[in-house]
Design goal:
The complex is a heterotrimer of chains A (378), B (81) and C (350).
Chain A (H helix, E strand, L loop, with lengths): L9 H14 L6 E7 H9 L2 H4 L4 E8 L7 H12 L3 E5 L14 H6 L4 E3 L3 H10 L4 E8 L4 H14 L4 E7 L2 H10 L1 H4 L8 E4 L2 H6 L5 H7 L3 E3 L4 H16 L5 E3 L11 H10 E3 L2 E4 L3 E4 L3 E3 L8 H4 L15 H5 L31 H17 L1
Parallel strand pairs in A: 1-2, 1-7, 3-4, 3-5, 5-6, 7-8, 8-9
Antiparallel strand pairs in A: 10-13, 11-12
Helix pairs in contact in A: 1-12, 2-16, 6-7, 7-13
Chain B lengths: L3 E10 L2 E6 L2 E6 L11 E5 L2 E5 L2 H17 L10
Chain C lengths: L28 H15 L2 H5 L13 E8 L5 E2 L2 E2 H14 L4 E12 L4 H18 L2 E10 L7 E10 L16 E4 L5 H7 L19 H10 L5 E3 L5 H13 L2 E5 L7 H10 L13 E4 L4 H9 L8 E7 L6 E4 L5 E3 L13
Parallel strand pairs in C: 4-5, 9-12
Antiparallel strand pairs in C: 1-6, 2-3, 4-6, 7-10, 7-11, 8-10, 9-11, 12-13
Amino acid sequence: MKYVDEYRDGRLAQTIADAVRAAAAPGRTYQLMEFCGGHTHAIHRYGVQDLLPDNVEMVHGPGCPVCVLPMSQIDSAISLARKPDVILCTYGDMLRVPGSRNASLLKAKAQGADVRMVYSSLDALQIARDNPDRQVVFFAIGFETTTPPTAVAIAQADAEGLANFSVFCNHVLTPSAIQNILQSPDVRELGRVRIDGFIGPAHVSTVIGSQPYEYFADEYQRPVVIAGFEPLDVMQAILMLVRQINEGRAEVENEFSRAVTREGNRKAQTLVAEIFELRRSFEWRGLGFVPYSGLKIKRRYRSYDAELRFDLQSHPWADNKACECGAVLRGVTKPRECKLFGTVCTPETPVGPCMVSTEGACAAYFTYGRYRDIRKTA
Amino acid sequence: MCLAIPAKIIDINGVMATAEVGGVCKEISLALVDDIAVNDYVIVHVGYALNRLDPKAAEETLELFRQVARAAGVPWPEEPA
Amino acid sequence: MSAVIKQDYRRPVDFKHGDVDLSHGSGGRAMAQLIDDLFVRAFDNPWLRQRDDSAAFQVASGRMVVATDSHVVSPLFFPGGDIGCLSVHGTVNDVAMSGALPLYLCASFILEEGFPLADLRRIVRSMAKAADEAGVNVITGDTKVVERGKGDGVFITTTGVGTVPPGVHISGDRARPGDKILLSGSLGDHGVAIMSRRENLSFGTTIESDTASLHELVAAMVAAVPGIRCLRDPTRGGLATALNELAEQSGVGMTIREMDLPIRDGVRGACEILGLDPLYVANEGKLIAICPPEQAEALLKIMQGHPLAVDAAIIGEVCEDPHHFVEMATEFGGNRIVDWLSGEQLPRIC
């Protein structure tokens, strides 16, 4: 596969790994946060950590939109799905995320709710066209990569006057999350989490461009390297970060130049600005309420807003006390340090979302990497 | 969820197009991109093309990797484009 | 003039335009006629022609093997096969995985009211062809009909009986550290073929299901290498699940190499697009063999010489591991484990 296989070449991996080893100064550690869940997954699936020297450590960030969705939002989606005239369309990842009282969309489906997995917002539109006498709600989640597709669907529904279509909007913003982490007591004061640099998300950046990260590099004096999705991209980005840190630089560099420009995708940005606006505040699992971090549908398109159409009330529900997803998402705790990890909480019986989503740090670690620590203690 | 994959455009029909990855074809939307031509490569995410892949930049990135190899003294054969 | 009355005339079953209805399962005339005109005619053997409720047969003394499988695949017709031939291959293969020679099959059908008889006949004929090619007979069966909406077209359960040649001991708990692991061919073809026909995942591909009867391949393998320890066909849950099962049963660990796994480009592409791991995608015409290391090359040659295993490869080794992990060296150079499947990749895959 072109533009994929070349970036997975094992021979090149070794040479880049050697370069990282050579560049990493002995006697200091490098803590690098990869923000994006897709990067977390790639690192575990390809065993990238095995190729890195011991003093280069990856800290997993909250870039998994499934993981950061609070339980109250899942509960709202389930309550929508349970309405007899509603068809709830959702991306596959959301099906098994636990809501309160151990409910989930998948369980609601088993009990008779009409929950349909879709690959694209276009599929949800088609379901609305095919079922004019039902209410079709699209459960929209995701960072800036996934927001433009939702915008297209709303614009299209408006153009067609598709009155039975609406969107339950849970889109969130990457820069706000990065800001929140850098501002958090864990990082700023308590020194519990040291982050020396960021691997910037791949596909979010194709949409928003590299420009938004310049603020962080400047203000917080941390280098950011935007990396492509493939393991060689990740390794190269790590090398570039180590070099920046060594040289005392804090710049935004773009390793994913084949798909990311400084301005990003203006067409997508314009469409998103037309349909959505910022919420004053939005709740993130693990980070609490983060200002100006989520999107809601603008007044002009309010007839497609499921929250208004169905008068959704959000009921906050506390996460399981022993669940450490919040701390994992902030990079404070490693999956294996959570008391529930691997015993009570497994991909089969997840307690928190980090174990459900394939991009969650706990799921990635459990599925691909837990054997390392088990072997060490054996 | 972050899942996005480079795919080749093999047919365009208005705002929809046929994208191909490793011999598998899927219908996608070009609503978020402009000036896409057949044989271009795009990044596909949840049924939409998000961006055109720049072949020149792609080659430069690969060349970056190869440079690291050469600097390490690993002989690297020139790959055909 | 008196009208001519045909004495033995019976209106034939309307296979072209007719549908299954509740009378076909009631035990009455309609059912008897369906059995005669469809099943007995298609499978065509003395047991069915006898029209008893059971079938009697002799076997040579020794060990017998029996295996059963239900088939709920959706869609019923897919590139490379259908639920009919799948139900034959699946059970023949289960029997063959203990090194046994499959002899007889039983087939029971649960039909949904309204299911087109044309499709049913197509499925039954496909079963008959598969059974014939495998050298097995379908000697007894059952038919039930459920009301519209309570079934999904047709469900088929097949049970197979076979005999194990003397001196052959193949079972999942016999793998030992040092043994080699072999795979008979490309991974994921069946699952991808099925997925390509699912409405909400439609994509175009030329990949066909690999569904096939493997007992002749197994017979050739066992004849050449009687020391084979384990055989398993990686169906639901793919290679990953089968290897984890064997590791658990035998109390061992395994290491495999990603670069040695045969996977077609079309399967890679489909898995990329859908975000799936080919190691977990179902196969219906492949097997895993575990044998002592000194016999691996000979076994590989035999397999590669058979049309169903031309892409066979040695993919790894069995090792000591109290945790029974299956570890994989990735193409990229790092390592990961290949864990049990969580949840389900796709429902109704076989």
